[in-house]
Amino acid sequence: MLEMLTRRIIPCLDVTLDESGCADVVKGEQFEELRYAGDPVELAQQYNRQGADELVFLDITASAEGRETMLDVVRRTADEVFIPLTVGGGISSVDDVKEVLRAGADKTAMNTAALQNPDLVEDAAENFGSQCVVVAIDAQRNYDIEEGEHIYTVDGRDCWFEAVVYGGREPTGVDAVEWAQDAAERGAGEILLTSMHGDGTKDGYDLPVTRAVSEAVDVPVIASGGAGGPEHMLEAFEDGKADAALAASIFHFDEYTVEEVKEYLDDNGVPVRI
Questions:
Q1: Cα separation of 192 and 56, whole Å?
Q2: How far is CA 211 from CA 34, 117, 205, 238, 243, in A?
Q3: Can you name the residues that pair with 272 across neighbouring β-strands?
Q4: What is the reported pTM?
Q5: Contact 34/79 with Cβ under 8 angstroms?
Q6: DSSP codes joined into one string, 59-86
Q7: Which end of the chain is more exposed for a tag (fewer CB within 10 A), N or C?
Q8: Where are the domains of the chain?
Q9: What is the number of other CB atoms lying within 10 angstroms of the CB of residue 267?
Q10: pLDDT in tens, 64-81
């Protein structure tokens, strides 16, 4: 039973191609002003050594640029880590899922394509199992409450959480909580929830949207966007009801190690794998 309750710490590699075609891990704020953070394979090795529970590898410009996921980098990364690897970016068909899994990924994350074609979630789950299907949802607050399905009061104002696509560049008019429920019913084994409000700010996770989605679905929810330290991860677990916490900046720029985060959580009563 304890293993089921264990909370996971997941470093995230946001990967893009530089002008010479080399893969770089980058990090920005609210998906903009990206700065170089390192080599994806080297960082993956580092987090594997530090005791990360899983890794997420996101090809963050594949969908916007209309290209396939960088499979060669996925292969090299998968060869160097011995923890579950989730890969997303540019996955728009069952064949794409197959290729990414064949390259060494344990799970695939789909965002834009799944929202535009929800049947993809069902097809992927039927072909490869729900455990391989992660639906990534990027959400932002929308204060036009006439448009939303699920209304929440946040800091004294009513709002709903809108799903956005193409790296946060395009609103969809879709209620993120409603979409998370639909995705889970269609076979998604997990929801990767990123708050545009918090991404890269290091001010903490967006607890209202994290809690809203976590309470609305029966599958695990990974909190993403805004981690500035282990205390924010504690909040994501206790107040946000998340099952896992994803972070990038605090790990990439050596502010904290995975071990330090887990020690803090363990000291505060959160069950983690040490």
A1: 10
A2: 28, 26, 10, 10, 11
A3: 7
A4: 0.92
A5: no
A6: ETTHHHHT----HHHHHHHHHH--S-EE
A7: N
A8: 7-267
A9: 10
A10: 666 667 898 999 999 999
> Exposed/middle/buried for 87, CB within 10 Å: 0-12, 13-18, 19+?
buried
14 is a catalytic site residue: yes
pLDDT digits (tens, 9 = 90+) for 7-32: 999 999 999 877 777 888 887 654 45
Catalytic site residue 138?
A: yes
Name the fold adopted by 7-267.
Answer: TIM Barrel (3.20.20)
The tokens for 121 are 């979630």
Cα–Cα distance, 206 to 204 (Å, whole number): 7
| Spatial distance between the Cα atoms of 46 and 26, rounded to a whole number of angstroms | 16
Neighbours of 161 (CB within 10 A): 33
Which token pair is 5?
């309750």
Catalytic residue among 24, 39, 96, 138: 138
> What is the Cα–Cα distance from 22 to 79, expressed in whole angstroms?
18
